[in-house]
Amino acid sequence: MSERSISPLDKAIVNKICAGQVVVTLASAIKELLENSIDAEATKIDIRLKDYGCESIEVVDNGLGIEEAQFERINLASVTTFGFRGEALFSLCQLAELIIHTCSADATYGTRLQFDANGCIAAKRPLARSRGTTVIVNRLFHNLPVRRKYLAEPAQMIKEFSKAVNVLTAYCLVAVNKQITCTRVGKSGEKVLVVSNGASTSLQDNIAAVFGQSQLNCLIPLLQVTTVRSDVLAEFGIKDPILDENIELHGYISKPPGVEANVSIRPPGSRVSPKTDNAGHGRSSADRQFVFVNGRPCDMPKINRMVTDLWRRCSRETISLSSSGLRMPVQSTSSRYPVFVLCFQVPTDIVDVNLTPDKRTLLLQNQNQVLALTKAVLLQTLFRSNGVDLLSLTNKSFETDVSAIEIVDLPIDLPSPAVQKKRPFVFEPSVQASKKVPTENCLLQNNYSLVIPSSTEEPRLVPIPSLAFEKSGYTENIDEFDNRDADGVGSAENPLELRPSVPLEFSFTKLKQSLSSVSTDLSTVCSTSSTSAFSLGNFRAEDSNAAEGELTTYFNKSSFHELEVVGQFNLGFIIGLHNQDLFIIDQHASDEKYRFEQLCADHRFVCQPLVVPRALDLSVGQEQLLLSNLDVFAKSGFAFHVDESAPCGRQVQLTATPMVGNKVFGRADVEEMLFVLAESCSRNCRPTRLRDILASRACRSAVMIGTALDHGKMRRIIRNMGTMEHPWNCPHGRPTMRHLFHLGRLGIEN
C-alpha cells in the first residue's frame, strides 16, 4: 500500500470519536443516565454529584433492573443509533470509568459490573441491593485532557454544573408521578439538596416543589381555545380555520406585567404611580422558560421569542386601553422575561427528534399550526386574566396608535363637560431635522400648553414656562407645532420679505480647468502617501472603534514604557513618540481611567444592614456563582446570610446593601453582578450604578484640562497607562489616545 493511499481508522479511534460526539458535556452525561432510568419505568430517581459532578456521577433508580442474560448487551458497540441506551453507556465507557449495580425483579441478589474502555465486562461480583439499577460514572473525560482540564477549572465547573441543573430542572417539571432528586456531595462528604420535585402528581405540584409556592402564585394556567382568530391564522399563512385537533397545549405562564391600578382613563392632574408589580411576575433573565414536546424537553427559540414578546406587550394597562377602543403597542412595554412551562402533545409521526445527539432540536411537520395555536392560547389567557373578552377585540390589531395616548400631567382648564375637540391637531413638518421626543411630553418640552377657551373655538397652543416632566415609553417624530384657525389655514401675521436678486458671473470653462488641476494635485498626494506614510505606519483607521482596535493590536503594555514624551499641547494633551509614530494622549481621560481602575480594584463601599433580610430568588447556578464570589460582592457593599439547610436556589438572603447618598440598591444590582461574573469572570465587576459613582469620583480627582504639567508628571501618566487593563477609553467612553502622524512621510529617519 502506498503512503498516499486512504486507510481506515482503527476501531478504537472510531469509537472514541463517536463517544465524544454523544457525550459532550457534564449535562449530556447526566441526561443520558436520567433518561435510562425513566425508560426503565422508575418512579424514584436519586442523582448524586460529587464535587459538582467532576469527580463522580451516581444515578440510583428503582426501575426494572437489568436481567443477567442482558449483561453482555448493555454496552453493545454495534448499537449506533443516537438515543439508544447501549450507545449512551458505551460512550461513557470510552470517556470515563463506568460501574453498574443492578438487580431485576426475578433475581435473588444484585450484581456489580465494572466495564473497560471497550465496553466489555472487566469484573463481576454479587452484591445486596433492592430492585433497580445504580450507574456510577467516575472521572468523566479523564482520557481527553483538554475537556478534562476545562471541566476541572473552578469557574467552568460552576458553569457546567449550572447547565446540568437546568437539564434536571426541566425533567423535574415534566415528570409526573416520578420523584427525581439531585444532591451535591461536597469534598468533606456533606450533602446539599440541589433540586427535587417531591412526590408530585401534577404539573402544578412540580412547579411548586421546584420553584416554590410563591412562584406558582405568580403563574396562571393556559386556557384552551376552540377557535383561532382569523388574523392569527393569516399571520402564519394558514387557510384552513380548523387546526389539527391532535395538537394540544397546556401549561402555565406568568401573570401579565402592569401597574397596580388597572384604569384606562385618568382624571386631570392625576399621576401614574411608578410602582409596578413586574418584579413579582417576571424575571430579569430567561432562566425559567421551558418547552416540552411529548414529555421531552426541547429547544424551540421561535416559540420562546413569540411568548416573551406577547407577554411583554400584553401588560395590564395596554389591555385596558384595548378594551376601551385603543390599540395595543407593536413593541414591548416591559424588559422582563416571563416564566412559562409549555407542554405540547403532538402525534409522533409529525415530529422528528433524532436531529442531534441530545434530541433537544426537533423538526415539526406542522410548525405553523403549532405557532398559531400557541399565539391563540396566549392571547386568550393573557386577556382573560385581566377580565377582558378577547372576542370583543377581534377587529383590533396589535399596532401602536400614539394619537390616542393620553397626555399626563398637563394642566387643562375645562369650562364645561360639553367642550369637545372638533378635529385633531395638525403637525406640519419643518425644513429642519425632526427630533425624537416622548409623545406625552412633546407639548411641554417645547414650552406649549393646551388651552380651550370656549366650546366654539378650536384648541390652540400657547407658550408656558419650562417644567420638569416624567419620561414616556412612546415616541414619535415631532417637528414643530403650527397653530391653525377653524379652517385649518395658518395666519400670516409675519409675511416673508422678498429680497432682490443679484446676478452672478459664472464661467463653466474656468470651473472645469480648476477642477482638473485640483484632481492632478490630489493624485500626486495620494500616490506619495500610499508609498511612504502608510507603508511605514501601521495606523490607518479614522473610525473610533477601528482606531481602538488598531491600538490594541499594535500596542501592548511595554509599548507605553517605550513611548517618549515630546511635550504638552494646549494644556490638555500629551504628545508622545514611539519609533517614528507620533501619538496624542488626553491627559484628563488617561489619568481618570487609571484612577477608575484603582478604585474598582481596591475601593470598598460602606454597607447598610437591612432590618429584614431580603430573600433572593436565584437559580442554582447563580446561587453557586454568588457563593464562590462573596468577597467580590463584599467590596461593593453587599452582605448575605447563607442557610445551608435550605434547598438550592433559596439558601441566600440579602442582609446588607451599599450606602451611597440617597440611592437604594437591591436584588436587581445583585443579578446584574452575577450576569457580569458569569460572562467575564472579572473580579473587579461592579453594578452599573456603583460603577458610575466610581467613575464620577475618578473624574473629579484626575488631572484636569488646562493644567500645566512638567515632564515628570507627563511621564507618570503615560507609565500608568501601561498598568491598566483597558487603557483605550475613559469610564465615560472618551478615547485616551490616538495616532497623529508617521514621521516617515517627512523623510525623517530615527
Word description of this protein:
This protein has 750 residues and is an alpha+beta fold. The protein folds into four domains: 11-191, Histidine kinase-like ATPase, C-terminal domain (Heat Shock Protein 90), CATH 3.30.565.10; 218-266 and 277-402, Ribosomal Protein S5, domain 2; 408-486, no CATH class; 538-750, formyl-coa transferase, domain 3. It is 33% helix and 19% strand. An eight-stranded mixed beta sheet has the order 5-4-3-6-2-1-7-8. Helix 5 runs antiparallel to helix 19 and helix 10 (301-313) packs parallel to helix 12.
In short:
This protein has 750 residues and is α+β, with helices and mostly antiparallel strands. Residues 76-84, 259-280, 391-496 and 528-537 have low confidence and may be disordered.
Mean pLDDT: 74
CATH superfamily of the largest domain: MutL, C-terminal domain, dimerisation subdomain
Low-pLDDT stretches: 76-84, 259-280, 391-496, 528-537
Helix count equals 23
Main sheet specs: 8 strands, mixed
CATH hierarchy class name of the largest domain: Alpha Beta
Number of E strands? 28
Query: Gyration radius, to the nearest Å?
Result: 34 Å
Structural class computed from helices and strand pairing: alpha+beta
CATH hierarchy: architecture of the largest domain: 2-Layer Sandwich
Task: Kindly give the count of domains.
Answer: 4
Give the strand line-up of the largest sheet.
Answer: 5-4-3-6-2-1-7-8
Proportion of strand residues: 15-25%
CATH topology of the largest domain: formyl-coa transferase, domain 3
Coarse shape: globular
Helix content: 25-40%
Give the N-terminus to C-terminus distance in angstroms. Answer: 61 Å
Region (Disordered): 264-283
Domain MutL C-terminal dimerisation: 565-709
Keywords: DNA damage
Domain DNA mismatch repair protein S5: 207-383
